[in-house]
């Protein structure tokens, strides 16, 4: 990327907070995407694997879609691709024959370990120069803004 000049910096400082937060999210995702692409993973694929790791292995497709905050239909293509890469398998739920469970394969578990190392490295680089106190304060502020936004949606 090109170095930013002072007019770029001034422009960014004039952006509303919501735009800067959105930009931060996009930039962080771009850094993660670049780090994970050598593993053969696009953003939707690594996001689905990471969420599967967080929610627990062998969860329903519907639960995974809800965790990713996307429609199930949007997730299906990604799951097909992950299945083709042999990183997941889908099985029929024993309790509900209509539901399909998403489960990691051994290859999927291996990729997740590699992802974890790379994601933590990205986090370390992106957050470099910030103290632990600054990070805790930032996390508190982000959480408070999120709670406020959720409250507005309830009204």
UniProtKB/TrEMBL annotation:
InterPro entries documented for this protein: HTH_MarR-typ, WH-like_DNA-bd_sf, WH_DNA-bd_sf
SUPFAM superfamilies: Winged helix' DNA-binding domain
Keywords, in A-Z order: DNA-binding, Transcription, Transcription regulation
Residues annotated as domain HTH marR-type: 14-147
PANTHER family noted in UniProt: TRANSCRIPTIONAL REGULATOR, MARR (PTHR42756), TRANSCRIPTIONAL REPRESSOR OF EMRAB OPERON (PTHR42756:SF1)
NCBIfam families in the record: PRK03573.1
Name listed for the protein in its UniProt record: MarR family transcriptional regulator
Organism of provenance: Vibrio algivorus
């Amino acid at each position: 990327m090109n170095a930013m000049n002072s007019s770029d910096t001034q422009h960014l400082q004039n952006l509303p907070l919501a735009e800067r937060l959105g930009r931060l999210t996009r930039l962080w995702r771009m850094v993660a995407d670049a780090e994970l692409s050598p593993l053969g993973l696009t953003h939707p694929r690594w996001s689905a694997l990471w969420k599967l790791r967080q929610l627990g292995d062998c969860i329903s497709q519907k639960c995974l879609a809800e965790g990713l905050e996307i429609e199930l239909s949007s997730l299906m293509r990604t799951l097909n691709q992950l299945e083709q890469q042999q990183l997941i398998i889908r099985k029929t739920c024993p309790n509900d024959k209509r539901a399909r469970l998403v489960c990691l394969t051994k290859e999927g578990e291996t990729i997740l370990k590699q992802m974890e190392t790379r994601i933590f490295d990205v986090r370390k680089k992106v957050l470099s120069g910030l103290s632990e106190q600054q990070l805790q304060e930032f996390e508190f502020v982000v959480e408070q803004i999120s709670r406020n936004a959720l409250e507005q949606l309830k009204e």
